[in-house]
Write a structure and sequence with these properties.
The chain has 230 residues and is mainly α. It is 83% helix and 0% strand.
Length: 230
């Protein structure tokens, strides 16, 4: 059962190891693509041209990004793994494009330092989720409901422009996504062990997407706190 402490056989350990090698491999590729697209969009001057001539294009990209991630979240495990992988990589391109704006707000040095800090914290939380004997499943429901509440509050704040709500969303987001990193790793481990035979590639893409979203959201909240503005 998800979250219960179990003694893994050698075959189970090999299965989990191979599965997470795929998961983190795909996640690393997606993060690399997003970073490269964001850097190119800024360094080529493309973002400034878009902001000057057609700023609505960013909104279109954000809508496309949202539609794609919703579709992926619901369909990824039903798709063939090549199609799931393609959609995931396309999503990472959209994300890199929309995130390129952070290069206009924060210095490159602070973006790199916050990225490295986020990577270290993410790794520690992931290791905890993978190896703890504590059942994190009860925490998952609370985290998901809290995340939904945060989304609603963020939408409301589009009209209120409240600094207090922004502050709450930043610190609350760090707590929520930190918890989700540990929870999602434990959940994915359980899904791997419960899958018949070798885990399907689409399950690895689902895991990579889940952890990619956790990482990006955690990174953005740390950046808002520790990033040095231009």
């Amino acid at each position: 059962m998800f979250g219960d402490a179990i003694l893994l056989t050698r075959d189970d350990q090999s299965k989990v190891s191979a599965f997470f090698t795929q998961v983190y491999g795909w996640m690393a590729v997606a993060l690399g693509i997003s970073g490269a697209v964001a850097w190119f969009t800024v360094s080529s001057g493309l973002l400034e041209k878009i902001m000057a001539t057609n700023p609505g294009l960013l909104n279109v990209a954000m809508i496309g990004e949202l539609v794609l991630v919703i579709a992926l979240s619901f369909l990824v495990r039903r798709l063939s793994w090549p199609l799931a992988a393609l959609m995931f990589l396309v999503y990472s391109v959209f994300t890199g494009f929309t995130l390129s704006i952070v290069f206009l707000v924060y210095t490159s040095a602070s973006i790199v330092s916050v990225f490295l800090m986020t990577s270290g914290i993410f790794a520690a939380l992931a290791m905890y989720g993978l190896f703890t004997e504590r059942n994190l499943a009860p925490m998952g429901g609370f985290l998901i409901m809290s995340l939904l509440g945060m989304v609603v509050a963020s939408l409301v704040n589009l009209f209120l422009h409240s600094p207090m709500i922004d502050w709450m969303m930043t610190y609350g987001g760090i707590i929520i996504f930190s918890g989700l990193v540990a929870y999602d790793n434990q959940k994915l481990k359980a899904m791997c062990l419960m899958s018949p035979g070798e885990p399907l590639g689409s399950l690895a893409i689902f895991g990579a997407l889940t952890l990619y979203l956790d990482f990006i959201n955690l990174f953005l909240r740390f950046l808002s706190l520790f990033g040095k503005r231009r």
